[in-house]
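Box S1 | Example of a co-folding query
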Amino acid sequence: MSASALKPGALGEVTSAKRLHYLNWSYTVRDWLLTLDHKRIAILYLVSISVMFALGGWAAAMIRIELTSPHGHILENDTYNKIFTMHGVLMVFFFLVPSIPATLGNFVLPLMLGARDLAFPKLNLLSWYFYMAGAALTLYAIISGGVDTGWTFYTPYSSVYSNSNVVLALVGIFLAGFSSIFTGINFIVTIHKMRAPGLTWFRLPLFVWATYAVSVVIVLGTPVVAITLLLVVAERLWNIGIFNPVLGGDPILFQHLFWFYSHPAVYIMILPSFGVISEVIACFSRKRVFGYSFVAFSSLAIGVFGFLVWGHHMFITGQSMYTGIVFSVLSFLVAIPSAIKVFNWTATVYKGTVWFTAPMLYAMGFIGLFTVGGLTGLFLASLAVDVHLNQTYFVVAHFHYVMVGGAMMGYFAGLHFWWPKITGRMYPEFWAKLAAGITFIGFNLTFFPQFIVGYLGMPRRYHNYPSEFQVWHIMSSAGASVLAVGVLIPGIYFLYSLKYGPRAGSNPWGASGLEWMTQSPPIKDNFDEPPVVTWEAYNYEDEVVEETVRDQAAGLEVQRELIGHTPPVTDESKRTDTRPGIPRNE
Ligand code: HEM
Ligand SMILES: [Cu+2]
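Box S1 (continued) | Returned holo structure for protoporphyrin IX containing FE
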């Protein structure tokens, strides 16, 4: 469509007759289950991880109900162990690790690069099947008797003593690990090879940088944990004596190998969120991200440093004090690139034209919560303090601030931000803002008391506790029910919007980025014509973007409500459309 047809009030696509796109070109089960389209695979992942998130959430609810009383009577000891293991395993390996890369990343990465698909579409589909096979095995392990080791599977308990379905669950996680590796390889090759002409490295959106960093971490780290888990399996099945001291093994070796991956894994969970937050903050502050290259390189720095700090999980395992000091200092260093990002986001919002849309609220919530999580990580990285705090609820609070307050809020920010692109529909903005607020409040009510009760001495993974801790647990459980409401509301309005949401148009936020220059939902091959890039990322200060906003605002009632004011109208004669070859809308 030519640009001249896009007069204010005439948002062609919104009113035009049905167009073919990736969702409606075919409806057969076969075309879904054997699809090679990155967008459809993203949807398959979205549905699967949502199921796992719901199951993990159910386990969390059981934990919180049990902990309302000091001598919880709802669950047996053994069942309690299995429930918190289920919660951790499902949330970490089957929800958080794949959440942003496999759903949002899969969907938007090729679009952002101006590519037709990922480099290896078949590998992409295979990764989903590995994920599903892993999920099926792990769920089977959980249903047919359960696993009681905790998500960390520490030896010798997991290798020698536990009578639960450890082997099945480990093989399931192993398969899921391969699905991440496939995704990581695919992303690395795609980012190197499939960028549109003119899309140089320093014109890439920061989401791409973050995805690149996370893919490298995945490809280097995941094989280590996969092999480690297989070693536990081998130890259980054949008694080979890797971790069992009776046979000459070393149980602490497991912790080294496990955390060598699993500390980087926490960055696998958070780095993609960093990418999402950069996109959202820039878009809704109408500004280029402050210190673009610092933000880009800090993702890589986090990737590198993340591999050097695993020992901070092992301060009390008898490692030498000098080792402890080195790991402690290195852990402090990791905080620097994280802090750079927080400062740069804040500087971006500062003096920006800020729109408090739902994705922006999630992003701002993210910044606050991640900061609390990161700072408390520094408490834990201090040797002497950690001796007191490790294995307490303080640690539980720390990692929920980073993983839920950070990674999950980032995922929600991204899901809201790209929902119009993915589905072609707007969700109800009022409810979305409300849900963001409820989630933020519920989250703090749930997890802040856990810092206090942990500091006071409440150990993690226990369900009987002294009655003086009860008040904190009740607060936390009450907060959890608020949080649950905050998370359920989006589930409802997202489904509702699929049918009843107003049509979104190609670029409802007036965002920069190639993904917004194709119709919503995108056509099967992403772009009518392959784009050629001649501009820098986040060119929000350019007029052309303002115009896009104006076109959209005029055409879409919901948009005016969203922005809260009529965006500035630029003189048509001053139009500087620097994007040849690309349909500006649709
Ligand atoms: C500023 C950066 C961070 C530092 C210095 C830091 C430090 C630490 C330390 C020292 C521990 C061990 C506590 C103990 O067991 O006694 C820990 C635990 C943990 N951290 Fe962090 N952390 C940081 C950021 C993150 C991020 C971004 C995430 C996730 C997105 C994360 C997730 C976790 C998890 C999951 C655990 C506990 C694992 C377990 O024992 O179950 N941390 N952190
Ligand atoms: Cu760590």
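Residues 3-15+37-573 form a domain with the Cytochrome C Oxidase; Chain A fold (CATH 1.20.210.10). DSSP finds 18 helices and no strands in the chain.
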